[in-house]
Amino acid sequence: TMKNAVPQAASLLLEKLLLLVHVRPLPAGSGGEPPPPPAAAAPGYYDTSCFKRGDLLEVPRTLFIHFGIYLGENRVAHLMPDILPAFTGDRRQIQQVVTNKRLILGVITKTASIRVDTVEDFAYGGSILVNHMDRLFEDQVLGSEEAARRAEKLVGATAYSLLWNNCEHFVTYCRYGAPFCETVKMIIRDQRSVLASVLVGLASIVCLGLAPSTTLPTIFIPFFLWMAG
């Protein structure tokens, strides 16, 4: 029972982690390779004639959303966690579909890639909303060409953060020029916050003993503070 509970807890944690990064985990047993895309995602399924260069595309999932910038000619720029750009500059390798292993290692090492894929690969059979976020940034929408050029300039390897540099931040910068809150970012990223949380957690274990209520926060709170940086 206890042995079975540990893998289940780890699996749930991984699922939550993947939800936070705005990407869909691949089915278990896939061997790290994505399954064939659904028939609905076959080339030409999406009517790209209704998309304009610089459009912000959203693909709603059950619990999260993935974002990209349309570049024209059936191409979408989007940010995904990926470890591979840290080891090679070979575009042919990097351009291959990101596997679970590459994605998870990218999250852990805080590395990502702003890549260009077809609309079909970007949406993977999901429905697409166009410029749905414009209502939140009414007077901040940049020109379509400016948004596309910003996205194209950023293509390549980049740093990654669950809270401060994910796919949503990428598209809001490109289309709206929305800056990040640097003050809050610096506070959260301060490694002293991680150290302080570790010390408080260890003190609670010493005073209250080993228990899920003391041990789990000691492990996971510092971990997520570190990941947030």
UniProtKB/TrEMBL annotation:
Family annotation (Pfam families): LRAT
GO molecular function annotation: phosphatidylcholine-retinol O-acyltransferase activity
Encoding gene, per UniProt annotation: Lrat
List of catalytic residues: C167
Regions that span the bilayer: 194-227
The keyword Signal appears for this protein: yes
Gene Ontology BP annotations: retinol metabolic process; vitamin A metabolic process
Recorded superkingdom: Eukaryota
Gene3D superfamilies: endopeptidase domain like (from Nostoc punctiforme) (3.90.1720.10)
Keywords: Acyltransferase, Membrane, Signal, Transferase, Transmembrane, Transmembrane helix
Boundaries of every LRAT domain copy: 56-183
Species assigned in the record: Circaetus pectoralis (black-chested snake-eagle)
Protein name: LRAT acyltransferase
One GO cellular component term noted in the UniProt record for this chain: rough endoplasmic reticulum
